[in-house]
Specification:
The complex is a heterotrimer of chains A (487), B (217) and C (259).
Chain A: H1 25-33, H2 36-56, H3 62-78, H4 80-94, E1 96-101, H5 104-118, E2 122-125, H6 129-134, H7 136-142, E3 146-149, H8 152-159, H9 176-187, H10 195-212, E4 215-218, E5 222-224, E6 229-234, H11 238-244, E7 248-254, E8 258-259, H12 262-277, E9 284-288, E10 302-308, H13 312-315, H14 332-335, H15 338-343, H16 354-365, H17 382-386, H18 393-404, H19 424-437, H20 440-452, H21 464-467, H22 478-486
Parallel strand pairs in A: 1-10, 2-3, 2-4, 4-7, 5-8, 7-10
Antiparallel strand pairs in A: 5-6, 6-9
Helix pairs in contact in A: 2-12, 3-12, 16-18
Chain B: H1 3-12, H2 36-49, E1 53-57, H3 62-73, E2 77-81, H4 85-93, E3 100-104, H5 112-118, E4 121-125, E5 129-130, E6 135-138, E7 154-160, E8 164-165, H6 168-174, E9 184-188, E10 193-194, E11 202-203, E12 210-216
Chain C: E1 14-17, H1 21-25, H2 28-40, E2 44-46, H3 56-60, H4 64-75, E3 84-86, H5 89-102, H6 109-116, E4 119-121, H7 122-128, E5 141-146, H8 149-154, H9 160-166, E6 171-173, H10 189-192, H11 194-210, E7 215-218, H12 221-234, E8 239-242, H13 243-250
Parallel strand pairs in C: 1-2, 1-3, 3-4, 5-6, 5-7, 7-8
The chains are: A alpha/beta (487), B alpha/beta (217), C alpha/beta (259).
Pfam families (chain A): Fer4_8, LUD_dom, LutB_C
GO molecular function (chain A): 4 iron, 4 sulfur cluster binding; metal ion binding
Keywords (chain A): 4Fe-4S, Electron transport, Iron, Iron-sulfur, Metal-binding, Repeat, Transport
């Protein structure tokens, strides 16, 4: 297609198919909180995932392993441009074609061009968050190419015409009864609470699709530069099907997923599966280093890798924000997030929900559109505590809050859309607060006055007193009590 | 400028300047020197915990056990390699207690519907196993194509106990994978599964419903 | 990347007491209890009269210029090399963990780092520097403990509160579900996202009640005003106090003795 067909957007990577207004966070949060089904589905799932993670790391020196994971990722990022070139060279030598895309639209075009060149009409997909970020399905379907998800969770979400609510478990917001009804309505399966039956039905439907697919599209968990190897982590086997059965396999990945050495994946894999689902390892760890060789009997004839930037090289510029790119997409941060647990993944309105979404999405959609994301956190630190590669998520949230109000003259803001949340009234309040709290005399006078007139304190304090009584001013401040004591 | 040049330029001319790479220390992945028996016990425990089945057999007796297993499942046929020693031995065994032996010796395109709809079980070799995670190492080859371990509902894998490694890290270094990777390499740890419906485990969602390991001691 | 292992100082003869603005205005009794506990341990407590606020509210709201101005006004309050004790994991965390970042590339960089290294959360200080031995003089009771997220994760002292309560022979510590989960305070978070914060505090209160407690103690006044305020609004019989107030009262207040 010509570039004039792409819908121009204020920030890269947001498609015309993008229906959710990220800024409507509050309304969605309210709806989710008052939806007992959502609350229950997420609470139950997150409690289970947290317990499984803890059990999976028993007997490990977890802190040393997290150090290793973090250092592997940092080493990869330190040499990122060289590693990408090495990766391309190795993959090319192995027979895999490498493409580069500055943003999601460009990546979609590359995938479409490959399909068109092959006359492909049916694409089957393995789970890929980057393809969600690109909104590839909408893009292809708008251009007459069927794109069918094959990961069971993604398949369910696609049947429901929704987006994933979790990066590892896309359909975690639904319970069995809801899924049964959905499958019944869309595919004609019987209504049943038997998960085996529902799974078997999906298997049957998807097997046909695998056989007839022209192209398989997958993501990549790690791309190894030294050997030119694309690694995929999965349990279902749909990833293997996607990358083995159709004659052409297109892998899409963010440019940050490269690691220098094959050895690196052993540690990252150990961290990834345990952090994500509490598994010691997933059923399949699939390492692809080339298309089918001439004498081989199966495997794709053509393998492509699309390296997608989509804002990552911009994140890469800043020493602190760079840590965002360490992420290996395990989802542990959302599993442990008390906010995510309450509101669920769809409330965020972004491809990546939860803590990682809050620090990543502002770069992709801009801080103007994503203005509520950094504030939707109590900064409790649970995310940073469990991150397998030690991303200091709370610190990055604070940094993005600063960026969204242009709050630091010493460190000018650089994220797209920065300053969008700076309001005159709030800025004045903080200025006044700063004035008083940097003048001890004024502070003592003001607090003393408040204490003296504590009985006149208003009982209603806006949002605070919707769920709580107002804190009661003491009749005498600590300052005053100590002054009296020392008299 | 091409997309590649644009991206690499931005990465190379980083506003924050050159980054320094930290040292990495893999010692946390080290495990004690387990004996083969210890490794086998660990392997068995790990793979059984994810619904895999382990049979300890002898080099002479594995076909007997295989026949029993396939009979107990009512398997009508068994997909075998056309070139690998395993396939050859099964064909030459001339046993009537084995089901029909199907040989994978043609490109998949010529018989895909049969493979997807008619084959009940397949048997492959392995390049070893991993004790800690209960994983099988498979490097599909011309002799043992990729789909053998993926499409039929039952996958039977033959593992030499002497080829068990403590960890993935150890296996990779011992077999010097970094020197050259095959087109496809796999770790398989149990049958295909999903928990995408309300965290309830279900097996055989896309790949095999059963993974049976014959460990030759 | 990893916090250095805390090396506790020898028990000093004097400490600076940094009271925090919430204690100053709303919970001065907790501050007095902390001071008295320290004094009972034979430590002279210096309260710099010019202290106001650590700057955290502006810092976490993104107004770093304003936070820096206020924080800078605190940096001159601790000229001697005595430890600085703070009856709050949150303010302690701000001073210990975030001051160095806040003042990086400023003339205060070295001073901020030096001060950060001297900051101790008060219960941690009582337990691990003073090696306090508490003699329980109160009636048998059951109490739940909520350790603030900053005390737990920034200061790394999750075990301190339960250890101190464990010294009180007549106090049973109620076992709660998800003790590590945030109560939903989060400073301005409670105002900016009232519904989410409300859902969090409501569940926290439920776990405390389900634990079989009618009262709870906490390391931080933010959590205290959140949980206790919610209980009061909801009419749930659950009262809360700062752990320092509780420890001081249980051990007899002024009349209490050290064993």
């Amino acid at each position: 297609m010509s570039s004039s067909e792409t819908v121009s957007q204020p920030a890269a990577g947001v498609h015309a198919g993008h229906q959710v207004d990220v800024r409507d966070f509050h309304n969605r949060a309210r709806a989710a909180i008052h939806n007992p089904k959502i609350r229950q589905n997420f609470r139950k799932a997150m409690d289970g995932l947290m317990a499984k993670r803890t059990a999976a790391f028993e007997g490990w020196d977890l802190e040393a392993l997290r150090d290793l994971g973090a250092n592997i990722r940092l080493r990869a990022l330190a040499n990122l441009p060289d590693l990408l070139e090495q990766l391309e060279q190795k993959l090319t030598a192995n027979g895999i074609r490498v493409h580069w895309a500055v943003d999601g639209d460009e990546a979609c075009q590359i995938v479409r061009d490959i399909c068109v060149a092959r006359g492909a009409k049916r694409v089957i997909k393995g789970k890929s968050m980057v393809s969600e970020e690109m909104e590839l399905n909408h893009y292809l379907e708008a251009r007459g190419i069927e794109a069918l998800e094959s990961d069971l969770g993604e398949y369910i979400v696609q049947l429901a015409d929704e987006t994933p609510s979790h990066i590892i478990m896309p359909a975690i917001h639904k319970n069995t009864a809801e899924i049964s009804e959905l499958m019944h309505e869309k595919t004609g399966t019987d209504l049943s609470n038997d998960v085996e039956y529902l799974t078997a039905s999906a298997r049957q439907q998807l097997r046909e699709k695998f056989m007839n697919a022209d192209v398989g599209v997958s993501g990549v968990n790690f791309a190894v530069a030294e050997t030119g190897t694309l690694c995929l982590v999965e349990n279902e086997g749909n990833g293997r099907m996607t990358t083995t059965v159709p004659p052409c396999h297109i892998a899409v990945t963010g440019i940050e997923k490269v690691v220098p050495r094959l050895e690196d994946v052993t540690a990252l894999l150990a961290l990834l599966t345990r952090s994500a689902t509490g598994q010691h390892i997933t059923t399949y760890f699939n390492m692809i280093s080339g298309p089918r060789k001439e004498d081989e009997l199966d495997g794709p004839e053509e393998v492509h890798l699309v390296l997608v930037d989509n804002g990552r090289s911009s994140i890469y510029q800043d020493d602190q924000l760079l840590d965002t790119l360490r992420c290996i997409r395990c989802g542990a941060c959302m599993n442990h997030c008390p906010v995510y647990t309450r509101v669920g993944g769809h409330t965020y309105g972004t491809t990546y929900p939860g803590p990682i979404g809050k620090i990543l999405m502002p770069h992709l959609i801009g801080l103007d559109e994503g203005r509520h994301l950094p504030t939707a956190s109590s900064l409790c630190g649970a995310c940073g505590e469990v991150c397998p590669v030690r991303i200091p998520i709370p610190d990055l949230l604070v940094r993005l809050r600063q960026e969204s109000v242009d709050g630091d003259k010493l460190h000018p803001a650089r994220v797209p859309g920065h300053g969008a949340k700076r309001g005159r009234a709030e800025a004045m309040i903080w200025k006044g607060w700063s004035w008083m709290h940097s003048r001890p005399g004024a502070y003592r006078f003001g607090t003393g006055l408040a204490a003296r007139f504590h009985k006149l304190q208003p009982g209603q304090l806006g949002a605070w007193t919707r769920f709580r009584t107002a804190p009661k001013l003491a009749p005498k401040t600590l300052h005053e009590q100590l002054k009296e004591r020392n008299r | 400028m091409s997309a590649k040049e644009t991206i690499l330029n931005r990465l190379r001319h980083r506003a924050g300047g050159q980054l320094t790479a930290p040292a990495v220390d893999f010692s946390v992945l080290q495990r004690p020197d387990w004996t083969t028996a210890e490794k086998l016990d660990l392997f068995e425990k790990a793979i059984e915990s994810v619904h895999g089945e382990v049979h300890r057999v002898t080099a002479d007796g594995w076909i007997d056990r295989l026949a029993e297993i396939l009979q107990s499942r009512g398997a009508r046929n068994l997909l075998i390699s056309g070139q690998h020693d395993l396939g050859t031995r099964l064909r030459e065994a001339g046993r009537d207690d084995l089901p029909d032996l199907l040989v994978y010796d043609e490109p998949v395109s010529s018989w895909q519907p049969t493979l997807f709809n008619e084959v009940d079980a397949a048997i492959t070799s392995t390049r070893g196993g991993i004790a800690e995670t209960g994983s099988l190492i498979l490097w599909p080859t011309v002799a043992e194509p990729r789909l053998m371990s993926l499409v039929p509902p039952i996958h039977i894998a033959v593992l030499q106990a002497s080829e068990l490694y403590a960890t993935f890290h150890q296996a990779m270094l011992a077999q010097n994978w970094a020197a050259g990777m095959p087109t496809n390499a796999l770790l398989i740890s149990g049958p295909s599964k999903t928990a995408d419906i309300e965290q309830t485990l279900a097996y055989g969602v896309h790949g095999p419903k059963e993974l049976i390991v014959l460990v030759i001691e | 990347m990893v916090d250095p292992i805390r090396v506790y100082p020898a028990k000093p003869s004097k400490v600076y007491f940094y009271g925090t603005c919430l204690i100053d205005l709303f919970y001065p009794d907790a501050g007095m209890a902390g001071i008295r506990l320290l004094e009972r341990e034979g430590i002279e407590v210096i309260f710099p009269d010019d202290q106001t606020c650590c700057g955290q509210p502006a810092y976490t709201s993104g107004y770093h210029d304003e936070a820096r101005t206020v924080a800078a006004a605190q940096l001159g309050l601790f000229p001697q090399d005595w430890p600085i004790v703070v009856p709050s994991g949150s303010c302690g965390g701000m001073m210990r963990k975030h001051y160095p970042d806040l003042f990086r590339d400023t003339p205060f960089e070295n001073l901020a780092a030096e001060i950060a290294g001297r900051v101790w959360e008060l219960t941690d200080f009582l337990l691990n520097v003073c090696h306090i031995k508490l003699e329980d003089l109160g009636e048998p009771t059951t109490v739940a403990m909520h350790t603030s997220c900053s005390a737990r994760r920034e200061m790394g002292i999750a075990e301190v509160g339960p250890a101190l309560l464990g010294q009180l022979t007549n106090v049973t510590l109620a076992e709660q579900a998800r003790p590590e989960e945030c109560c939903g305070f989060g400073g301005t978070f409670a105002i900016r996202h009232p519904e989410i914060s409300g859902a969090m505090v409501s569940e926290k209160l439920t776990t405390l009640v389900d634990a079989g407690a009618r009262e709870f103690v906490t390391t931080d006044c933010g959590c205290l005003m959140n949980i206790a305020g919610h209980a009061e609004k909801a009419g749930t019989p659950m009262t809360g106090q700062h752990i320092l107030s509780f420890l001081w009262k249980r051990t007899g207040g002024e009349g209490g003795k050290r064993s």
